[in-house]
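Backbone-to-sequence.
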């Protein structure tokens, strides 16, 4: 009987550990994530996530084996305990396991904590209820523009939509401050995704067809049958709804789902960097893990630019991957744009003074959106740099380990 009790104890504790480990490495528990340290890279330390994936794929039969092995010693301990207190201890541990099982599988699962809209409404700007000073991730396709407020998609983590006849997956990770728009079509077929957890503090999604796990910041499948495959990224822009609507007067706007009013209220200060959460608040100083940067990718090169410097200087000029780049700050000091400085065969050099943006070559006047409004180049528009993002410094360096820091003038 003593052996039965000891066997019961070992098995019940192993089952509890199994449940905890199934979520530990893919949720932000102490010590479970990498990505905030200077030496951390998303290209290393995949072992813990591989273990989590293996557990995720095999936990069903592992539980079943554990329950079968537990059944007999549990019966012996409960029916004929050697000590009366054995029965009470066994009962308490079974109750504890039940609580852990429920918490892990109902309360701690990422897709249970951050749910999809139950009543998704995307309306014309004329019917919009979202304040114009709210930040959005904007996307256009086939002449149709749509704005997705960060306060909403930051909670949902992903919203599926169709823009200009094109299916899109609009994603946001608040811990990395990464907004990305992807095509959900994989090998010619649209798939569905659910939020499964995080890796290097970045949201991970699981596709329905193969169960592969995908990083939100890069759109790459890191585990599963589709490992190494990448979702096609679509160009989104980060600005206030007012600035987006000024450039896209016929835009549609995602509206708040009343089923998640409390969750959206908890996100109202996030976009301005005033969140109280340790994982989502902003470092106001430069080049700290939670400092804001603008990351730019071009031709396999990547650079990060200090947000504070851009706010102060209003424009930054540089070359990334052979492309002359202009970063421009809007008058609201919240919206920004990234543009190519090439116009035809000419590369322009920009200067900002007295609240005017001009090019030195022709003295034409430009807006922060890259539109020429006066001078010899009147009517010209700078081409947008599609892969330019605002995010936390720890995120950018994790997923771009070879990135260079700002050397713009």
């Amino acid at each position: 009987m003593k052996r039965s009790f000891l066997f019961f104890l070992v098995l019940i504790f192993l089952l509890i550990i199994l449940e905890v480990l199934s979520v530990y490495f893919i949720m932000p528990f102490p010590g479970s994530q990498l990505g905030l340290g200077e030496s951390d890279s998303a290209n290393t330390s995949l072992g813990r996530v591989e273990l989590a994936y293996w557990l995720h794929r095999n936990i069903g039969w592992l539980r079943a084996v554990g329950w079968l092995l537990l059944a007999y010693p549990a019966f012996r301990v409960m029916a004929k305990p050697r000590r009366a207190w054995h029965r009470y201890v066994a009962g308490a541990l079974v109750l504890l396991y039940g609580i852990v099982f429920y918490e892990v599988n109902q309360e701690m699962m990422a897709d249970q904590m951050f749910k999809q809209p139950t009543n998704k409404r995307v309306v014309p700007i004329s019917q919009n209820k979202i304040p114009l000073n709210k930040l959005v991730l904007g996307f256009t396709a086939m002449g149709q523009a749509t704005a997705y407020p960060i306060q909403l998609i930051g909670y949902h983590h992903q919203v599926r939509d169709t823009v200009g006849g094109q299916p899109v997956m609009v994603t946001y990770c608040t811990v990395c401050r990464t907004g990305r728009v992807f095509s959900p079509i994989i090998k010619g077929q649209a798939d569905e995704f659910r939020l499964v957890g995080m890796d290097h503090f970045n949201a991970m999604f699981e596709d329905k067809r193969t169960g592969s796990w995908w990083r939100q910041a890069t759109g790459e499948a890191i585990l599963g049958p589709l490992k190494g495959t990448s979702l096609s990224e679509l160009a989104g822009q980060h600005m206030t709804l007012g600035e987006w609507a000024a450039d896209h007067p016929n835009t549609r706007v995602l509206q708040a789902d009343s089923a998640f009013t409390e969750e959206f209220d908890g996100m109202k200060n996030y976009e301005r960097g005033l969140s109280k959460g340790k994982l989502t608040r902003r470092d106001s100083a430069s080049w700290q893990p939670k400092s804001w940067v603008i990351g730019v990718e071009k031709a396999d090169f990547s650079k990060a630019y200090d947000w504070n410097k851009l706010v102060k200087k209003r424009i930054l000029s540089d070359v990334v991957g052979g492309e002359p780049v202009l970063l421009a700050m809007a008058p609201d000091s919240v919206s920004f744009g990234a543009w190519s400085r090439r116009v035809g065969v000419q590369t322009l050099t920009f200067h900002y003074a007295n609240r005017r943006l001009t090019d030195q070559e022709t003295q034409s006047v430009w807006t922060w959106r890259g539109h020429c409004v006066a001078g010899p180049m009147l009517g010209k528009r700078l081409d947008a740099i599609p892969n330019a993002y605002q995010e936390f410094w720890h995120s950018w360096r994790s997923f771009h380990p070879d990135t260079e820091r700002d050397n713009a003038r």
